[in-house]
Each structure stands twice: as structure tokens, then as C-alpha cells.
Amino acid sequence: MSRTALLAMDLQLSHLAHVSADYLPRAVRALETARAARIPVIHVTLRLRPGHVDAHPRNKTFGSLPPDLFTADDPGAAIHPDVAPLGDELVVHKNRVSAFAGNNLQQILAAQDIDHLVLAGIATGGIVLSTALQAADLDHRVTVLSDACFDPDPELHETLVTKVLNRRGDVTTTSEWAHTLTTRV
């Protein structure tokens, strides 16, 4: 029997410092919806090695970051307390944009027979896009919670959820997703 999991991605203090104030309650709602339906939640965070020895200077995203950011000792790399893991929820660290980068996420999903990924996180043009594309290529069913994703460029967010991500999976809101969970047999 296949299973669904919610990936709560990059909901770290440093990332949340750059989003609109109305975003965090929507991310909280996505987690509450998954937990109420007993859907596993997997938290995915960016974690680089001290000194960023795993980030090549040519990498536009990670190569120019100050060497103390997003390391285990960086307080800003912590998951925001409002969306922090509860109970036995897993935390998986990545070292690039995709949730699958530099970790054993795919192995965890296979071991738990999870083949449907519901995505929420920051940023739509970063981890959400990269993860959705890779998940689809790995034959996972993908659902993107459009209101539980955020991008600092609202036009890019809108384009991605209406013209790109819906070609690789389903795009819905947290409320619509919650409704499907309460009406399933």
C-alpha cells in the first residue's frame, strides 16, 4: 500500500526572516493538516559543513554564502519553533537546493513505501521546484500546496504554480488538500 508524506522544506529561521508575515500560519496549517490525518511529516533543512567545504565557489547559490551560515552551529539554521518537528517526525539535511541532495531521503521514502509527496516550503523557485522535478523523475506522485509555498518574487511563484509545477503533479491549496483528506474513504 502506498503512502503520502508532507515535506516541510527550508522552514528555517534565516529563510523565514525574508518572507511575508502571512506565510508562517499557512505553513503551520499544512503541518496541522498532515498531523491530523496521520500523514508522516519529514522536515528538510539546508545544512552545510563548517567552512562550507561542501560548497564550491562557482555555485551561485551556495558559493558566496558566509562560511558560518547554515551550519550546525548557526542559530538561523534552526527550524522555526512554530513548525518544529513533533514526536518521531524525521529531519533530513540537504546540502544543495533539492530536498534529495546529499542525503538518504529517497532511501527513507522507499523504506516507508512513501510514493506521494506533498510539498510545502521556501522558496517556490528553489527547493519546491527542484524537489518537485526530481520527485517526478523518481516516479513519485507530487502535490504542491501553493499557499504553503513562498517565493520572494510573487510573479515567479504564480508562474511556477500555474504553469510549471502543475505539469509534473497536482497543485492545490492547504484547505483543498484538507478537504480531500476528510472525504477519502
Descriptive report:
The protein has 185 residues and is an alpha/beta fold. The protein has one domain: Isochorismatase-like (Rossmann fold, 3-Layer(aba) Sandwich). 32% of the residues lie in helices and 22% in strands. The chain has 6 helices and 6 strands, in the order βααββαβαβαβα. A 6-stranded parallel β-sheet has the order 3-2-1-4-5-6, sandwiched between helices. Helix 5 links the parallel strand 5 and strand 6. It is globular and about 50 Å long. The relative contact order is 0.19.
Feature tags:
185 residues, Rossmann fold, six-stranded parallel sheet, alpha/beta, 22% strand
What secondary-structure arrangement, pairings included, does this model have?
Elements: E1 3-9, H1 13-16, H2 23-36, E2 41-46, E3 90-94, H3 105-111, E4 114-122, H4 124-137, E5 141-150, H5 154-164, E6 170-172, H6 174-183
Parallel strand pairs: 1-2, 1-4, 2-3, 4-5, 5-6
How would you summarize what this structure contains?
The chain has 185 residues and is an alpha/beta fold. The protein has 6 helices and 6 strands, in the order βααββαβαβαβα.
Separation of termini?
15 Å
N-to-C series of helices and strands? EHHEEHEHEHEH
Specify the biggest β-sheet.
6 strands, parallel
Runs with pLDDT <50, length 5+?
none
Number of strands: 6
- Range of strand content: 15-25%
Strand order of the largest sheet: 3-2-1-4-5-6
Q: Give the CATH level 1 class.
A: Alpha Beta
Helix content: 25-40%
What's the CATH topology name?
A: Rossmann fold
